[in-house]
Amino acid sequence: MKALIPYIRLCSGLFLLVILAGCGETVGGVVDDVNRNLELGRAEARGQKGSERLLASPCPEIQIVRDLGTLHDFTDDQRTFYENLIAEMSIRKRQSTCDLATSSATVDLALLFTGTLGPKARQQKTDKPFLTYPFFVAVTGPNGKIMAKEVFAVSMNFEPGETTRTHTEYLRQIIPIKSKETAFQYQVLVGFQLSPEQLAYNRAALAPKGVPVPGHKPKITYVPVEQMTENQLIEQAASQKSVPQPVSAPIPVTREILP
To answer: Rounded mean pLDDT of 50-75?
Structure first.
């Protein structure tokens, strides 16, 4: 029987349920760099002695996915110059705590979003830009496979003359675990839902000089979960074009329930 992972947005009072599924989607596709680090961390954890294990956190690890930690919104995705920038958004972990039970881990997470307006955010000095961008939270199990994923929206309203603003989102994940001793093998991944162009921009900005930047494949319309490759998960996260649209409150943009 499939278990349920409740997602609670404490800031907006919305109660969301995500179905936990034993699917074949791999965490590897989130980003190649992060994936190698996660695999290394799991291998090291398996080889740790009891005394070494006590020094590490017993809680699920929180990861801001490197390639998906920032979002740049341009008026023209093919002309990514500063003068065409509408806004830049970044995300980082502000605080996290966890409570371990015999068969579940409750993770309380505070995410800090920082938004900075670009030259194209306003047409007049008195304008009050209201921007909304999607981000996701995914949970992975000890085998590195995606157990559940949910997409939310973060919204910011800028007053005249204001160019930078911060916003904190409070989330709670209740994750079914095999035992308290294995809780550290679970992970919570966070990042923005990017378009292929935004993903390519981030990779180019993060790549060391002289190192070729990996390109992106065409948008994936549908791929069975059990056939997903490592790179396809990151492309799926980039399959939706982010367009700033007013909404009444931060609400889920889409709902992705893995079979």
So the answer is: 80
pLDDT (average), residues 57-84 = 91
Are the C-beta atoms of residues 102 and 180 closer than 8 Å to each other?
yes
Q: Which two tokens stand for residue 10?
A: 């404490």
Q: SS3 sequence, 129-179?
A: CEEEEEEEEEEECCCCEEEEEEEEEEEEECCCCCCEEEEEEEEEEEEECCC
Burial class (CB in 10 A: 0-12, 13-18, 19+), 2: exposed
In the DSSP assignment, the letter for residue 106 is E
- Positive or negative, the CA dihedral 48, 51, 54, 55 is negative
- CB neighbourhood size of 55 (10 A): 7
Encode pLDDT of 33-54 as tens digits.
444 444 444 444 444 444 444 4
Q: Are strands 164-176 and 14-19 parallel, antiparallel or unpaired?
A: unpaired
State pLDDT tens for residues 90-100: 999 888 888 99
CA-based R_g, the chain, Å: 19
Distance CA 65, CA 27 (A): 11
Residue 237: what pLDDT? 60
- Alpha-carbon separation of residue 183 from 50, 110, 187, 197, 252 (angstroms): 15, 20, 9, 36, 27
Pairing between β-strand 187-192 and β-strand 61-64 as defined by DSSP bridges: parallel
Name the more confident of 177 and 38. 177
Q: What is the pTM of this model?
A: 0.63
Numbers of helices and strands, H then E, in the chain: 4, 10
Give, in order, the Cα–Cα distances in Å from 69 to each of 118, 183, 209, 229.
Answer: 18, 24, 20, 21
